[in-house]
């Protein structure tokens, strides 16, 4: 889930007072964003089995960055790059780069649905770390949800479940970087414009992975279909983030949070259609447990009272 990293923090320019104006439209936009993120993961998996992973990730970020420059720079001007805490914004961008790299390496080895499910460990860890790091109250429901979610991940990634251990290790590395990314998102959302943070993630990834291209460039010329897929990664990632942002303008975060887990359905469906992969019974049970624990986290955020 390279696109949203199981994000739990609203990334919109709107104030909380303006959110929730069109909840149904917000949910529909959110569902479309999750579908685009799953399409991105499936495309990465397809291309990563044929090309070097750094090349695939570089093309995703380069196309994404170019689209933002062409479409947004004329209207945004200097506002697109103006930040208040540039160091943290860049660190957040680097964290997303690490997530993209490790998740792409994992997708090369294990199915999309399993990668997506394991990645949902990230928001549960954020719930636990939000206490000591951000001073947020965890509560009994948060602890139960985190423990349940971890049990679900163990069912999906259990020994003997058919998943390559190195692939699981790569996903867990991506989860660790994703937790830092989400915590930084929560810290920065109060001072930075979401569109600016998105531009820094795209441009940082384009520059850093682009610098690696001479070492990973392939002599095999991509087919027209593969060139289309390379281009589509920037479109699905960029458009997915845009719809993700618009969704939070129309619907409150507490309403959208449980919808996040629909991405496991999209990932499973696309994995079946493209790669003919169907998770086994225990893996499906683990995914259900993860979804239930995520719903508990959503309930916690919906009914918790501010201190």
Secondary structure layout plus pairing:
Layout: H1 23-48, H2 53-76, H3 86-107, H4 112-119, H5 121-134, H6 139-156, H7 165-188, H8 194-211, H9 213-216, H10 224-250, H11 253-256, H12 262-275, H13 281-303
Helix pairs in contact: 1-10, 1-12, 2-3, 2-8, 2-10, 3-7, 3-8, 4-12, 5-6, 5-7, 5-13, 6-13
Architecture overview:
There is one protein chain. The protein starts with 22 loop residues before the first helix and ends with a helix. α4 (112-119) packs antiparallel against α12. It has 13 helices and no strands. It is mainly alpha-helical. The chain has one domain (18-303). Helices cover 74% and strands 0% of the residues. The relative contact order is 0.24. The protein has helices spanning 23-48, 53-76, 86-107, 112-119, 121-134, 139-156, 165-188, 194-211, 213-216, 224-250, 253-256, 262-275, 281-303.
The tally of strands reads 0
Rg estimate, integer Å? 18 Å
Task: Give me the secondary-structure category.
Answer: mainly alpha
The structural domain count equals 1
Query: Which of globular, elongated, flat, extended, rod-shaped describes the shape?
Result: globular
The number of helical elements comes to 13
Percent strand equals under 5%
Mean pLDDT score, rounded?
80
What is the succession of H and E elements?
HHHHHHHHHHHHH
Largest sheet properties: none
Helix content: over 70%
* Distance separating the two termini: 32 Å
Any low-confidence stretches, pLDDT <50, length ≥5?
A: 7-19
């Amino acid at each position: 889930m390279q696109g949203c990293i199981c994000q739990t923090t609203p990334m919109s320019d709107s104030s909380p007072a303006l959110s929730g104006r069109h909840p149904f439209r917000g949910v529909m936009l959110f569902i479309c964003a999750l579908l685009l993120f799953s399409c991105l993961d499936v495309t990465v998996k397809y291309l990563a089995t044929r090309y070097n992973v750094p090349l695939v990730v570089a093309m995703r970020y380069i196309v994404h960055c170019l689209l933002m420059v062409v479409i947004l720079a004329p209207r945004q001007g200097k506002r697109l790059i103006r930040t208040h805490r540039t160091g943290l914004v860049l660190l957040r961008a680097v964290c997303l780069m690490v997530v993209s790299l490790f998740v792409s390496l994992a997708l090369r080895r294990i199915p999309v649905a399993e990668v997506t499910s394991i990645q949902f460990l990230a928001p549960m860890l954020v719930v636990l770390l939000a206490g000591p790091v951000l001073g947020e109250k965890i509560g009994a429901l948060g602890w139960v949800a985190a423990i349940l979610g971890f049990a679900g991940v163990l069912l999906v990634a259990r020994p003997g479940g058919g998943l390559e251990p190195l692939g699981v290790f790569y996903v867990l590395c991506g989860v660790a970087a994703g937790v830092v990314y989400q915590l930084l998102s929560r810290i920065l959302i109060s001072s930075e414009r979401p569109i600016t943070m998105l531009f820094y993630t795209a441009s940082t990834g384009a520059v850093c992975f682009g610098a690696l291209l001479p070492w990973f460039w392939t002599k095999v010329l991509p087919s027209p279909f593969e060139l289309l897929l390379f281009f589509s990664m920037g479109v699905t990632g960029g458009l997915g983030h845009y719809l993700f942002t618009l969704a939070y303008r129309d619907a409150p975060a507490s309403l959208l949070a449980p919808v996040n887990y629909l991405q496991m359905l999209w990932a499973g469906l696309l994995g079946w259609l493209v790669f003919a992969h169907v998770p086994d019974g225990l893996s499906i049970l683990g995914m259900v447990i993860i979804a239930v624990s995520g719903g508990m986290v959503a309930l916690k955020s919906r009914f918790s009272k501010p201190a």
